[in-house]
Amino acid sequence: MKIHRPYQLKIYDPSWEKKFLGKAQRLTSVLKDEVIAIHHIGSTAIPGMMAKPQIDILAVVKDLSPIPGYHGAMKKEGFTALGDYTGIGEEYFVEDAMDNTRTASLHILPIGHPEIEKQLHFRDYLRENKTDRDVYSSVKRKLYEKYPDKYSAYDKGKEKTIKAIKKRAKQWAKSFRNRSV
Q1: Which pLDDT tens digit goes with each residue over 114-140?
Q2: Contact at 8 Å (CB) between 18 and 97?
Q3: What is the C-alpha separation between 126 and 12, in angstroms, rounded?
Q4: Which regions in the chain score pLDDT beneath 70?
Q5: What is the 3-state secondary structure (H, E, C) of 50-62?
Q6: Whole-angstrom Cα distance, residue 94 to residue 79?
């Protein structure tokens, strides 16, 4: 049985960065030396972007194989393990509020995984490119108005726009090859 997951769309809130930092600190206390870096990704990491008030986190680890051993400790911190939920070779965790609203998504990937660069380029590109940020925000707003109670339709509706922006973000990133990820 599929559970309806409520969602909201809000204008950018600077407090999202503090929420990320708090969650990153909790994750570091659990995963300790496994973690190489923890990044704030997704729309809540992009000033000016419309977003679900759900903090998206990317944790880069030395090796993914020890992470299942942390499932119990992560559960104590409020994160539920969903395994390789997206099918890209990750450990995925979620944090949900009592009303079933998602408050955080955590993607744990091993160093060198190509998705790391893609996520960071997408975020950084939208931080720098107001035009695409505003286009994406507008698409999200229209989809939310059309599908306020159907998250899957909202999510699917964004795919074409995301794909086009990711393509531009990749080209943009090529111009900064000397930049480290």
Answers
A1: 999 999 999 999 999 999 999 999 999
A2: no
A3: 13
A4: 1-5, 177-181
A5: CECCCEEEEEEEC
A6: 5
